[in-house]
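Page 47, continued from p. 46.
Same chain as before, 301 aa.
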Amino acid sequence: MTASHSKFKTAINAAYFSIFGNLALAITKGITGYFGNSFALIADAIESSSDVFASLLVLFGLKYASRPPDENHPYGHGKIEPLTTFAVVGFLLISATVIFVQSIDNILTPHDTPVPFTLYVLAGIIFTKEVFYRIVNRKSDETNSTSLKADAWHHRSDAITSLMAFIGISIGLYFGPGYETADDYAAMIASLFIVYNAYLIFRPALGEIMDEHLHDELIADIRKETEKVKGVISTEKCYVRKMGMHYLIDLHVVVSSSLSVGEGHAIAHSVKDHLIAEIPDILDILIHIEPEEITPTAYYQ
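Result:
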């Protein structure tokens, strides 16, 4: 199995983990919220339900991105990843809007304080969702997957929503009559956290689509490794584009002006082979050979 295939398999397994985990928690929250008289928990269940669909989108995006290059997509299908991330952000924003509007409706409608046992359920959910976040986030770092990173933040958003519900219900139970709506206000505040997290997910995905310069550390590694190749004097321009879990590189390499075209071509191939071997995240490299600048007097020496 190649490193690329291993990455995709890891990411896809993480997406399945998210789907089944979110489904189980959505059911748990919904049942607990209904019988425990807590809209904050029901709102939490709504967000987890949207997470299931979002994780399904991530899974689709990862499977599509794993397709090899073809005639119509010579650079591969990796750009589907940030597009999938935009869809995930859309689910987050819809969830936040539904929770916010329903919270206002519940605040205006008198209801009883949530049942105490909901706090125990919430404590377990907060712990579980934070564990989910850490697992999926680690997998997103391992695979360099934008959409998986978005899925991880979905788990963190869920943990925040549950934490706010825990605080709201605790206030309602501790202070008693007059504080029945505390968990509704908590759900409203949680919706604002969800919107903020949606922005944090959206911004890097937008940068990826726009080929924004975000890869200083990788460029430094490319320059350092390139200068190890025999015949390379230095590097000039180096541009990086992210394509799914991998990178496409445009690199200008400076060599001696006395070399033949064939010798310069051979050095370019050596550079490409060396970089792909040393930096596996590189999918392909386009190398332009530049001659070393010679001062006018050098021609007469």
